[in-house]
Design a protein that fits this description.
mainly beta; Immunoglobulin-like; five-stranded mixed β-sheet; 12 helices; 41% strand; MG2 domain-containing protein
Amino acid sequence: MMINYFRIIILFLFPSISIAQETKQYSFDAFAEKIYLQFDNDVYTTNKTIWFKAIVSNVVLHSPEFSSGILYVDLINSDKDIIESKLIKLKDGIGSGFFDLDRSYKDGTYLIRAYTEWNKNFGLDFIFKKYIKIYSENSTSINLEPIQNLRRIDSSLSTIRLKADIFPEYVDERHQNQKLKIIISQDGVKDTISIKRDLQGVFDFDYLVKKSTKHLELEFTTYGKKRYVTSFSPNASLIDLQFFPESGDLVHGLSSKVGFKAIGTDGKGKYVKGIIVDSKDRIVSSFESNVLGMGHFELKDVDSSLVYTAKLTESPGLRETLVGLPKVLGKGITMSASWRHEMLHVVVSSNDLKSQNIVLKASCRGYTYFQEEANLTNGSFVFKIPKQLFPEGIISLKLNDAQGMPMAERLIFNYMPDDRINLEAVLDKREYQQRDKVRLSIKTLDSKKQPLTANVSSLVVNQNLFSDVQNLRETILSYFLLSSDLKGTIETPGAYFYNENSLNIDDLLLTQGWTNYKYDKKKGSFKYEMEQRLKVSGVINPKKKKKEKEELELMLMTFDQMKIPYSSKVMVPGTFSFDLDDIYGTEKDIIIQPMTGSKDDKKKYLIALDKKHKLPIVFDDQSGIILNDSIVYKVVDENRKQKTEEDDFYFSNYGRTLLDEIVIDGYKMTPEREEMFNKYGKPDIVIDGEEIVEKTTDWSYGLYSVLRNAFWDKITILRQGRDLKAQIFVNEVTLVVIDGIPVLEDEYPFVQYLSPDEVVSFEIIKFPKNFNSLYTRVYPLAGPPYPDGSIISIYTKRAKGLFGALRSDNDKVNLNTISVFSIAKDFYTPKYDNDDSFSSKTLDIRAPLYWNPEIITNDEGKAIIEYYNSDIDGDFLIFIEAITTSGQLGSKWINYKVKANNN
């Protein structure tokens, strides 16, 4: 690759260097960062966790090594409210995180967006966006249709092969038969077939339908004699048909490739077929799209005196049977591009410019790899460029005249699979039993079988929930090489990098791509820095104006475990900045004051922190959701079935469910209380704040001292050294949550000093649900097995957590709250003894089965992962993705089977 690697790294590390000082090889957008989040799913119920891996790289080389150290990830609802935010610590551009869901989340579409502070320099083009669906684990808010996942598998000249999943039990719960008779009517012509349940218990409908069919009707009758009928068009939905000449225009006397795309009212591509006729009603070409409505055809020697029209021979709901092509220009220039024998051939043709000076520039992701000047000879010229000159990805071709005025543009994709990571993955078996140990050996090699050190992720899921879409979902390859470089949504992006798929990426670039390619900005300014660590900055001014500046030593102290103060000498009035060590949690309160700490000095100055620029929230769920609703139904239905199994299991073994319904009379419900109820359950003891105030004496020195003397029958307060500590049960852990915010381990000593006047309610939750989840937030380094415990829930008047409650109106301490890194959470996988695999009284129906976002292969390119299967049998998929520090990418998936243990 002919690019100065070190120069671009210097430009990233020292953005104050102007692009003009280097060369004209870089566009402004070439200095942005790409952000990729890999998720475990697209659909969730509220008892699940959203797991994700984050990769941040520079856009030109895809190298994560020299990139930001902080990633901001927001979970946003359809009302455009940020309901949870995470700061992800990145090491060499890579990190991981999660969102724990609970019953407070309403059903619907949610947006997950991710960005770096540095990427704010480039507008919204490099902000990662992902739409997901979240549904209740208990409600039946999704109307489960008896016929789901209707899809076109393939088609021939005369037929369309349709598949669907049929669930007669949604019509009649008593239907347990293993066979189902389906009556099919195509435009009134009836046929009858009998289908059986597959291994997952679903009736699999598979049928050839005539392409000419306008009306298809399916009918079945259940065991209880309940009849169900539905009808639709196999090619339903009105569509718009659009045409895109290869380099922008049709020009008289010249031939041109023309891309086309048929778009339905749902924004998705629709299959079409037809012919091109001229105004003399002569057929000059024909066309047929792929399943996504895209394709191309050739027009020879077009004539500006004629009008060209597309006539649909198969027009499924098209608004017009005739659609006009763009007008033919009398004079102009065209440019066509194609790959031939490892060379890129760019043919320039003009009907009026015979010896014009032209300049061709070929770039990829904002970096120019080729620029050459030439003269047309008799109106034409052919540029021949070696394929190896470019990296893999979208190549932007721009043709200008000698004055730099644009003449034609074209995008073309450069496939370079030898530049990718050669991923090898071998299982120790092809077939397992429930709770068996799985051993997966991974190798990361280059095209010459030499080892590569790579960062690898491994995701294992139930294949039944992904069925026919596993090869269509976004992957690390499709995102970095395609989706991240084009504006808008790409249907089934993974299909373009799936060997068995027939989609042509050139059809995509001819239609959707040529007006939506990024990296066109030539100039810009760097207002935001590339963050590597947590930082606090602001301004300090004296309350009384002075003529001269004074030097002051300023101190910042965080309420983290170390409690080490930071100091910095500043000029007043002036600005200050503190670089902090890595701090983890949710938010942290900090104190900023003069180093002397005297009350007089505190009163002399006004201190204000800098606020980060907030990004506007753009929520367009129609452009983001590409999954068929039937797939959503399948995932939600499976999650709910698993939830029911868990509840039944825990009720039969422990006399209670994981999520009890909560009904409380005479109790004022607030949003904070509702959230606590949903997460952890009903309080067993409630002490009103007014009662606590009534029992407060002159010698009381905080909440715990009052509780210890006046409410000893409801809560045990122990003395540990100089501190008081609350304990509900002996030998069990007691955790504290204030206003819904967990109190972390190093913050516990502050709880005793809460003012009784500030407390609204003191509540005790014995045997809470989801205790493990809270425990891992308070003690992030702890691993299973987790202890039993109870929860103290305190609600305050300020409703801002522990440090919000500790503040008083008379407090002169400059207390501020800052965001810190999100605590990491490991995906828990049990370890079973094969000799006693079913002795445990714990039901194991993990979904996903396994998730490991950061596996590092060694110097030999090897890594081994081990995990245990759950109590779920069936087929499983392992998704593996990898990236090296130099930006090489790899993606692979394999499958295996788990058999039910008959013991």
